[in-house]
């Protein structure tokens, strides 16, 4: 059976992607959560994940003796293992486009990721307003996301998900939706509507519910708060 090793659901955006993908696609798997106590080499988290993944990061997917790390590698493995789930678009050109935007997310948007770390439980709209005013690179990242999503939604011909039906691309951008919401970053109505559709997906909703239930305040993950509300 597939086993997915993840970090705290409130904070771990990379863990969220394959978890949502598996859950939304209805692929059975066992979840193993490794709490973020510290990222120091001697921490319990690093010791536990280091026994599986030489990079020392989550997520990690195991399938028997096979160990797969890196979110994009996990997504590709699942797409190959479960072709009936159509995790990538079936059209070859659309599939290439989906891979392109996922790779862009995988390697880019560093300003948004650096200044607006994932924190599902918190309302950081005041911090978000300051970030929006002071960080032009964050504004540029959000503008690119808006442009990308609008193009994909228009090309799909349906006001649903990025490629019409649920795909790896939606799982990849689900944590971006939570970031935009947490920090109250301004987006137009059509983009807010897409975000609402993503949050309503059963896989995303289940992750968010679990994240809210954690109530595990980790100070080094909280640059804008001294304590949970």
TrEMBL record:
GO terms for biological process: glutathione metabolic process; L-phenylalanine catabolic process. SUPFAM superfamilies: GST C-terminal domain-like, Thioredoxin-like. CDD domains: GST_C_3, GST_N_1. InterPro entries: Glutathione-S-Trfase_C_sf, Glutathione_S-Trfase, Glutathione_S-Trfase_N, Thioredoxin-like_sf. The keyword Transferase applies. The keyword Lipid biosynthesis does not apply. GO terms for molecular function: glutathione transferase activity; maleylacetoacetate isomerase activity. Residues 2-86 form the GST N-terminal domain. It comes from the Bacteria. It holds the Pfam family GST_N_2. Keywords: Transferase. This is Glutathione S-transferase. It comes from Hylemonella gracilis str. Niagara R. The lineage of its organism: Bacteria, Pseudomonadati, Pseudomonadota, Betaproteobacteria, Burkholderiales.
